[in-house]
Amino acid sequence: MLEDRIAKLSDVQKQCLRLAASGRSSKEIAPEVGLSHQTVDQYIHRARVTLGAENRRDAARILMEAESAQPFKQFELKPSRLDDPQDSAIVDLPAAEPVTLVERIGLPPIGGKTNDLTVQQRLYAIARIAFFLMITATAIIIISKGAFVVLS
């Protein structure tokens, strides 16, 4: 059943998912496949729907696992060393990016990463940003008022 869904994917959709699996954003994928980043988003969205995945990461993971999986041979003799990395179905994850101050505070990432948040998660992120801005504005007002008191 999964093989049928993967067979429905076009070559461009598979290529976009492979590049997404390596941690690239749509803006980074676009020049490599010769499309705009909006078109890349559409290809990935359609592939996600076809595969029945929740988000682009899941769709990329499903494709990578399906492409790296090897059919099981029932009566095959196994070698004594089973930890051979060539037979492993584990896909290497991209190296973790360094955590920035913005991420430590809990604010959403800045820049071209596509967001796949639900409506509730988006509202929560907006509320966190508003709270952070309110604290920052209050601090600026207090500091400037203190400066005026000291200088006058």
From TrEMBL:
Keywords: DNA-binding, Membrane, Transmembrane, Transmembrane helix. Pfam families: GerE. PROSITE patterns: HTH_LUXR_2. GO terms for molecular function: DNA binding. The chain crosses the membrane at residues 129-151. Residues 2-67 form the HTH luxR-type domain. Coiled coil: none annotated. This is DNA-binding CsgD family transcriptional regulator. It comes from Sphingobium xenophagum.
